[in-house]
Design a protein that fits this description.
Number of strands of chain A: 2
Mean pLDDT of chain B: 89
Oligomer: heterodimer
Strand content of chain A: under 5%
Structural class of chain A: mainly alpha
Shape of chain A: globular
Distance between the termini of chain A: 44 Å
Helix content of chain A: over 70%
Number of helices of chain A: 14
Order of helices and strands of chain B: HHHHHHHHHHH
Helix content of chain B: over 70%
Low-confidence stretches of chain A: 1-14, 323-330
Radius of gyration of chain B: 26 Å
Largest sheet of chain B: none
Low-confidence stretches of chain B: none
Number of strands of chain B: 0
Shape of chain B: flat
Distance between the termini of chain B: 63 Å
Strand order of the largest sheet of chain A: 1-2
Chain lengths: 330, 295
């Protein structure tokens, strides 16, 4: 269109600027194509991961079908039968217990950071909690294994077993590395995630909401409980679901503290396995194709679950915070 | 009498509400402290348990077999540098290009697809990415390799680079871009000479956060880079990395190796936290500067 307009001008100038224009347009077209190709690559990677896991688990899917998800026999040595139920149970139980511990604490911390903390304390405390999110998970595992289990988890487990041991979930014997240990370490890792996102959700709530309630005579706690929490509810839910996604896929820290045991028991105090930790432990030992396919199928299940969870969580957070930079990053 | 009896319950109720508010605030403060404690606890312990085993020799020598004194993590330091470095070399240009595209075309179908893919990629467990790279790099090649480790880390870094770069590009005032275009500069020149320099320190922040994240990834290394007790710089050979070394030493039954795990954790956590703190300082400084530019 520009070239057309220029061509209407005097011939000499037209040819000059037309040539320059063509050169520049070529550059721009090339540039646009390069950017679009890079963007396509990102989409292609996600599609390729899904396709790769689907194709790579074919033997296992053909052999066991849906039985794979409900059978608890994991026997690569003799019968070569694979069922993932102990791992699915382990993943669900540890993630759920971790959320149970982390959610109240981190929502309280978020309320404090966003609404109640004195100004001079907000920045340093926020930084501290954000740095907690940056600690590599292998360091959490190391700390969990050598510090948290002996000082906190084992005494806690003994206490629970002693007082509530008649409940199947607290049945003995008491081990150090256990589903409980994995849950506690996971909870520690989830704290900064939920805190940071919930704080951003709170900060995104319009000031007029607070001012209205304060003007009606509400105390600060009443503002939080009656105005901010209902207003940000779906945002908090999004934060929790995003944390759940993280908990389900967390690998190395869990592998180090869960004790790696195939038994399917309801006890939290028993060592167990999660979907991610069985893959971490046995992937390089998978000596025949069906074995490897079964492990890849567990990876496929993890991929599908995290896909759904992330889509749902982002939808929820986006509705409240309008996808502000910090929220999307966390 | 009637007035006092009407006032007294009101005052009492108000007082009760104020006390409830105070108690709730106190609980929230306790939650915040409880949330911050693990970091202090971890840092203190890593320092306390890691410092005794640290020495110059630890950083510059190779691992020794169990029972042989000395030994270090030189191979893992070099291995982490190589895998993260090669991964970054791939992820940085692609990520920045994608971010420019998404920032410019947020509502086109491809822009929406890219945003969704980036979010998904950020949420995929790293162990699953490890499986993916195992089947596309390790299995065809027939052996574990540093290259496979670099590819996994590249994929892990990609969404971080894309998001931070996109946010930083969006902070660049449109007047800068319009000014450049009005002077006759084509779109690509405007991007490279005007927008990217204006967003440079923000992009650097994103790269640093990506490196900090990738440097700490142990799980996908188990079946890509695999680990290697010897010194190697060959992209086609298995290679040791810092997080993988921590994992192997930590789950070993030897106290000597366990104390080396703490010392290695000391190195890794220092690196990661320094990168994070510098990145945060950079971004707050940059946001302020771009803010004044916009005004």
């Amino acid at each position: 269109m520009n070239a057309g307009a220029r061509a209407a001008g005097p011939p000499r100038r037209a040819s000059l600027s037309a040539r320059a224009g063509v050169r520049l347009r070529h550059g721009d077209r090339l540039y646009a194509v390069a950017l679009a190709l890079a963007s396509l690559l990102v989409v292609a990677i996600v599609v390729a991961i899904g396709w790769d896991l689907w194709a790579g688990s074919r033997l296992s899917r053909d052999a066991f079908g849906l039985e794979f998800l409900v059978s608890s026999r994991w026997d690569p040595a003799i019968d070569r039968v694979f069922g993932a139920l102990p791992f699915i149970q382990g993943t669900l139980v540890t993630s759920f217990v971790a959320l149970l511990m982390a959610v109240p604490l981190s929502l309280g911390a978020a309320v404090f950071l966003a609404e109640l903390a004195p100004g001079w304390l907000r920045q340093p405390l926020s930084l501290l909690i954000e740095l907690l999110a940056a600690v590599p998970s292998v360091v959490y595992g190391l700390w969990g294994l050598f510090v948290l289990i002996p000082t906190l988890v084992k005494p806690l487990a003994q206490g629970l077993n002693g007082s509530l041991g008649f409940l199947p979930i607290f049945a003995g014997p008491v081990f150090g590395p256990s589903r409980l240990a994995a849950s506690v370490v996971l909870a520690t890792m989830l704290l900064p995630t939920i805190t940071a996102i919930s704080r951003d959700v709170l900060l995104a709530i319009p000031a007029a909401q607070r001012e209205g309630a304060l003007a009606l005579g509400a105390t600060r706690w009443e503002v939080v409980r009656q105005v901010l929490i209902p207003f940000g509810a779906s945002g908090f839910l999004g934060a929790i679901i995003l944390a759940l996604g993280r908990a389900l896929g967390e690998t190395i820290a869990v592998t180090m503290v869960i004790g790696n045991n195939l038994d399917l028991t309801p006890s939290l105090l028993h060592p167990g396995y999660t979907m991610a930790s069985i893959v971490a432990n046995e992937f390089t030992e998978a000596t025949f194709d069906l074995y490897l396919n079964a492990l890849i199928e567990i990876g496929l299940a993890l991929f599908v679950i995290t896909l759904l969870i992330n889509a749902f969580a982002r939808l929820l957070i986006f509705r409240v915070a309008g996808g502000s930079a910090r929220v999307v990053q966390a | 009498m009637s007035t006092t009896s009407r006032r007294a319950p009101d005052a009492w109720r108000l007082r009760r509400r104020r006390i409830a508010s105070l108690v709730a605030s106190g609980l929230a403060a306790a939650c915040a402290i409880a949330t911050a404690i693990p970091l202090i606890w971890i840092l203190a312990y890593v320092f306390q348990a890691g410092a005794p085993a640290l020495s110059l020799g630890f950083l510059t020598s190779l691992p020794t077999p169990v029972g042989v004194p000395g030994g270090g993590i030189a191979n893992a330091i070099v291995g982490s540098a190589i895998t993260v470095g090669v991964g970054l070399l791939v992820a940085a240009p692609i990520g920045i290009a994608v971010a420019i595209y998404v920032a410019a075309n947020p509502h086109r179908p491809l822009g929406i697809a890219v945003r969704f893919s980036t979010d998904t990629l950020a949420g995929v467990p790293s162990i699953v990415m490890g499986i993916f790279v195992y089947t596309i790099v390790v299995r065809p090649a027939g052996h574990f390799s540093a290259l496979a480790g670099a590819v996994v880390l590249g994929i892990i870094m990609l969404p971080i680079v894309i998001r931070t770069t996109e946010e930083m590009i969006k902070l660049v005032p449109t007047s800068l871009r319009e000014g450049s275009l009005a002077l006759g500069a084509p779109e690509w020149r405007t991007s490279i000479r005007v927008i990217l320099p204006a967003a440079a320190s923000g992009i650097l922040t994103g790269l640093m956060l990506a490196v900090a994240r990738a440097a700490g990834e142990a799980a996908p290394m188990l079946f890509t880079a695999f680990g290697n007790p010897f010194f190697s710089t060959d992209l086609n050979e298995p290679i040791a990395t810092l997080p993988h070394t921590i994992f192997v030493y930590a789950i070993s039954p030897y106290p000597d190796w366990q104390s080396k795990a703490w010392a290695t954790a000391f190195i890794l956590i220092s690196l990661v936290l320094i990168l994070n703190i510098v990145a945060r300082v950079l971004v707050s400084w940059r946001t302020r500067r771009l803010g004044t530019m916009a005004r």
